[in-house]
Amino acid sequence: MRRALITCWLSFSAVLFFARGSFGADPLWQSKPVAQWNEEDAKAVLADSPWVKHFRPEHVRDLSPDERRDGGNMEAGIGRGVGLEGLAGLFSGRREAEAVRRAHDKPPADPVVVRWESAPVRAAETKAGEDAPAVDASYYVLVVYDIPLPRRWNLANELKGVSYLKLGRKKELKPARVEILRGDDGLATVVYLFRRSVEITRQDRYIYFVAQLDRLFLAPLFNVEDMRLAGRLEL
């Protein structure tokens, strides 16, 4: 899906130089009308613009047995196990504690792409020839691409309950619904739809998108002031 966009990040460096302009010039999305964007422009916008974040999720702590039991899934949030090293350390409190710590250590999660599916992003996706998910323009839509997720029948509703937009001093905005699109590579694209009944303005300044996706957590920050096109806020 979009893993290549992440792993080949450096290959966009030359494109980004021209996209942002040299010597402090305005970036292309401020200086060049969308109708004039070519495929290279579109890829630059999708690689690095105010509506696109590359974020490495953090692992959340392992669940206790009681928490797993209450959640109805005894396999959720379990570390790799203590193993033989832990058994050998049963006679030494320090060694046992160290073995348990290592057993629950997890490798860093792969970075993911988070896109605010605004009008300029949708235009860039079209011009770049991407097969982007369909979105409803009556919502604010954020999409997390290429993230590993287990298969549970109620997972979309679970993700809905542990995500929100933090808008300055306003009350947190919860998603109206969450959709999960599965890829052939085993990764998922997760679509978050927030009602536009709460207006986002330049006075909000910054928006945190906070989400937990199974045992991964992310909270990319969007700068509202930068999310403008031709002087108009595009969300």
Descriptive account of the structure:
- It contains nine helices and twelve strands.
- α4 packs across α8.
- The protein has helices at residues 3-7, 13-20, 28-31, 39-47, 65-71, 83-88, 93-104, 119-127, 155-161, and strands spanning 52-55, 58-59, 112-116, 139-148, 163-167, 177-182, 187-195, 206-213, 216-218, 221-223, 228-229, 232-233.
- It starts with a helix and ends with a strand.
- The strands form three sheets. A five-stranded antiparallel sheet has the order 1-3-4-7-6, with helices on both faces. Strands 2, 5, 8, 9 and 10 form a five-stranded antiparallel sheet that branches.
- The longest helix is centred in the middle third of the chain and has 12 residues, at 93-104.
- The protein is α+β, with helices and mostly antiparallel strands.
- β8 (206-213) and β9 form a beta hairpin.
- The model is unreliable at 3-19 and 78-92 (pLDDT under 50).
